[in-house]
Amino acid sequence: xxxxxxxxxxxxxxxxxxxxxxxxxxxxxxxxxxxxxxxxxxxxxxxxxxxxxxxxxxxxxxxxxxxxxxxxxxxxxxxxxxxxxxxxxxxxxxxxxxxxxxxxxxxxxxxxxxxxxxxxxxxxxxxxxxxxxxxxxxxxxxxxxxxxxxxxxxxxxxxxxxxxxxxxxxxxxxxxxxxxxxxxxxxxxxxxxxxxxxxxxxxxxxxxxxxxxxxxxxxxxxxxxxxxxxxxxxxxxxxxxxxxxxxxxxxxxxxxxxxxxx
Length: 262
Ligand SMILES: O=c1ccn([C@@H]2O[C@H](COP(=O)(O)O)[C@@H](O)[C@H]2O)c(=O)[nH]1
Known about the structure:
Oligomer: single chain
Number of strands: 8
Bound molecules: ligand LLZGTKA7
Pfam family, one: OMPdecase
Strand content: 15-25%
Keywords: Decarboxylase, Lyase, Pyrimidine biosynthesis
Number of domains: 1
Family: Belongs to the OMP decarboxylase family. Type 1 subfamily.
CATH architecture: Alpha-Beta Barrel
Radius of gyration: 17 Å
Largest sheet: 8 strands, parallel, barrel
CATH class: Alpha Beta
CATH topology: TIM Barrel
Distance between the termini: 29 Å
Order of helices and strands: EHEHHEHEHEHHEHEHEHH
Catalytic activity: orotidine 5'-phosphate + H(+) = UMP + CO2
Pathway: Pyrimidine metabolism; UMP biosynthesis via de novo pathway; UMP from orotate: step 2/2
């Protein structure tokens, strides 16, 4: 067991095309989660202004998984940094580790040039949690998910990523290899007995936190529940050491932006 000293927190994924529904979930789960995820479904339907709406409830994890040439990704990061409003812009954003070191370096420069120390944390997605070993091999990657996650993690952290998105099954290997500093944000989390859906590399919230994750990304186990607030509260209560919700600046390695002060 190597849970983080500050504990682990929950990010609720607001996966819906309906901004009013997303805001309803945000309001309901905010007392139990540290951040709220705006992903492709919500962002593409509702546009950048939805980031500000959601950020009124909790800091936003903007999960758009940029993957393009460095110049284009740098431009996208600048655009996203422009969504920073009074309530705080995205606290974290994602890009694909497979985009390469030059893309990640360009993203980091763009974020720093836009917002300086107030920039969002940059997270490199390693191997999507929906991939089995067989599905990954079919894309031409040899060696299995753990090896590929470690390979992309090394590349991304060297290029300036603040952290990684990985499955629960790679968390302890990443901690062994890279120590406590990288922010580990982990989807593929399923309370015992809940439906895995399209997720392949999964674990329970308890095991994910105990392995050393900073943040657990949980979508359908919360949003498909009859009572999303109760579902979020139950997952938070199951964590060995829940992170304080009102964390101060730089908690969990996050820059100070957007995090409510104590
Ligand atoms: O490898 C990845 C990267 C991102 N995600 C995102 O996390 C949530 C998980 O939702 P569930 O409903 O709990 O499965 C979702 O928004 C994904 O886009 C991921 O699952 N895997």
